[in-house]
Model the fold of this input.
Amino acid sequence: MHRFEAGDLTGESYARVLIVKSGAANVTAVAEAFQCARLSVYREIKRFDSKGIEGLLRGKRGPRQGHKLRDAALRRLAVMRREGVPKSQCAHRLGVTEGAIRAACKRLGLNEPSAVESIPLPLSLGNDALIEEAPSVADEVLSESSVQGVPLSSKESGPERKVAVVDANSAVAADAGADASSMQDTAIALLDAGVELAADESVACATTAEANAVSEAAPAELDSEESSPPLTALHGTSDAWNRDAERALAALGLLEEAPPQFGPARHVRGAGALLAMPALLASGMFEVARDLYRSFGKAFYGVPAVFLAMALMALLRVRRPEKLRHRSPVDLGRLLGLDRAPEVKTLRRRIAALASRGQSEEFQRRLAQRRASALGDALGFLYVDGHVRAYNGKHELPKAHMTRLRLSMPATVDHWVNDRDGEPLLVVTATPTASTAHELPGVLAQVRGVVGDRRVTVVFDRGGWSPKLFAKMVNQGFDFLTYRKGRIPKVRRSRFVEHRGTFDGREVRYQLAERKLRISGLTMREVVRLSDTGEHQTSIVTSRKDLSLVETAYRMFARWRQENFFKYMGEEFELDALVQYGVEAADEERDVPNPLRRAKEREISAVRKEIAALEKTLGAALGENEESRRPTVRGFKIAHGETGKALRNARTRLERLRTEARDIPRRVTAKEAAAGKPVVRLHTDSKRLTDTVKMIAYQAESALVRMLRPHYSRVEDEGRKLIASAFELAGDLDVSNGELLVSLEPAASPNRTKAIAALCAELNASAACFPGTTLRLRFAIREA
Done:
């Protein structure tokens, strides 16, 4: 459609506009292909519509700093803002517009006077500061020795290399009340002079309580020939919630991530969600995430902060990133130990960046292995069932049957694996057009990687019925439990006997009978249950010979827990929500039903209906025939000649269609079925990643419900609703003696407040620390 030379930015912009304008692709697909932001494409289209090609021409790229606010002016601005001078007066004194002042304050993190006083100098281990051939401004500032107790010296580092390194002991001085304003002036002057501020991330402080440890650390060696690592922490601010300096350094590419840091906060909405923190820590989510994804590079929000934000969103029923618009980013940020939580665009970019690494399957597998190791022998039964997610977008996806809607529509299918209590273990994205029996081998392979060599019993519905699969499962060390499929001979009523049992605290009673079943050389047990009305028989087939009849029936019927799980996750966590829009390439060689064969079968079905209607018409006419008028069959045929002719033509057409259908293969590859169109599917890594986080949040919620059981009599009926309401409770945050005290406001009723108070006492005994800090979590709830 368009050719442009590599490096021709205007030609590249015009190519994007041309593709979108021609309708060949939408903005999302163009942005993905060109690896740019969707917003950039929209801006290019807008400029093209208003000015044509001229609107796409790139102007000269100049310096990003204001041309009127140079080094000396910026230092004066910092002093005035520290003294509380309004921005309008600063603009008048410096002879620039107020807009220029606002831009400079935003660039340097000087928006609030209180923030100006608390912005520290980026710190690093090392007793010397290096500046080689720095501009006069930096020399002037350094010659004044504005940082108390910080020795400065020079060292050869190359003609193009300008690095400033300040002793980390100044962090302690700042905490002790050092002159923060002079440190700020030094930082601003060095940054404006083009000097790089370096810090050693190995000794970065996450909280004020850790600052003393920095002064005792051994000085790090600074190699002027190597690039300094990005900053991972800033320390020494008087206001723990003021992170303007770190945001400024992140914008300059000098910060790897902002660590959590807490201070006093009052009436923080959703503080009750921190009740789930011990369970989230026990899941190992933060350790596995840090090990697999490490970091985003130079950014303010690190990997742990993003995963914690997604988990808290799930617990607080913020079902998708777009819903963050209705939550206070400041309140949610307090729960993360930051000044603000990531907002919609930032969070979506972070999730996309995580998904692009293709580690979501490994992330889920490691978490599942941890959970399987913790459960031990309790992981004896695993329930596998498919969950269909309908798709209503513009992309052409394979269709799947929606049982609850009783129709087929574009969808994706996920196979969930849950334990015997209904708790999720892992989820596997499946092929929509394939049956459960076709997908089970792949699911079992992932299950084996999670549970190891132990023998487990896999429970599934009739969709997985396959004698060949059963034999393969037994040989691989799996037992199975499923419903029998097909025509089933009835069992005599006299053979049923009542069986009783108690499992998971529930007493059950069934009318059961047993018989052996041998199919394809495999001998199985068949347990038949008679309904209470005596009219229906349900046949259950298993390879387990050690299970009692009543436990076999109970474990099979316990599939309702997995169905309830899907319903609960859909309503509370919006399991079917799309996280990342767009599609990715799918397997073109997978086996799918032939669409040409299906079209021919639809024609055959229509002709059969036509034949049935014509035969019905002739039959009705024959019943009403007056023998006195038409005593012979020949006369009847002559009288209904048109109907008979139409019937003969329909039967001829049916035979022709049957012959044509025999020559068409039933299944072909997805590439052949697409007939030249791309074979795509929805993004899987981002969905699997968010599903895994929601899975961990659900497990944390379940753990709290179990802890609540001794303290709340209606926990079976209201336990989850009580925990969900506890997450929404507002509360105060305080830091004292190495503890993060979370004081929640009372619940809606005294008995709920009392139950949550007992839960807080149990959580305090766990002595869990907030991730990324040494602050021990301590919970309390105020009485009404």
Observations:
- The CA atoms of residues 151 and 658 lie 93 Å apart.
- The chain is about 45% helix and 15% strand.
- Residues 113-237 have pLDDT under 50 and may be disordered.
- The longest strand covers residues 506-519.
